[in-house]
């Protein structure tokens, strides 16, 4: 709708406010056919992990857990014993002071170290972690001694094995040499016996001697017949 307005004796038609509201649309309103927003690029920072509230520290200390509580990311309400052990040895104020002086990248390791130290101090109030380290070093020394002893035994067993193999080799060589000598002796004896049989036997010797006797008799008889003076 138009409304007549007068400015210095001149009437001008101006649209009413209702018409302006109908014709104007918000610039950022999405049309029905508009495409969905693009997905987040991998370069955009990831969302931080959800921190449960109240944390175990504030719950045990019976105080209101603030939105940016320093202890909330490291002492969740599902594990209250973690804060109880650290608070009993170090105290909540000291823990908060330590965490505020460190960057966020080192706070998780710091809290784990404090909890381990507190647990060791509760188990051994005198030495704490030093006692645990001493026991571990002692175990390492004992294991190293056992390892050295085992290595010495292994070397001695290897030497015994080499000596045994050498003895077996010598025994086999001796057996082989004895077998070779026995075979040579047997071949020599067999060749000697065959040579004796080939040269002569007792019957042949006697036959040869008889042949000589017969020849002598024949010669004598011929001499008798040929001698004219034999009367």
From TrEMBL:
Biased composition (Low complexity): 23-33
Region (Disordered): 14-46
Signal peptide residue numbers: none
Domain LOB span(s) in chain numbering: 53-154
InterPro entries: LOB (IPR004883)
Family according to the record: Belongs to the LOB domain-containing protein family.
Protein name as it appears in the record: (rape) hypothetical protein
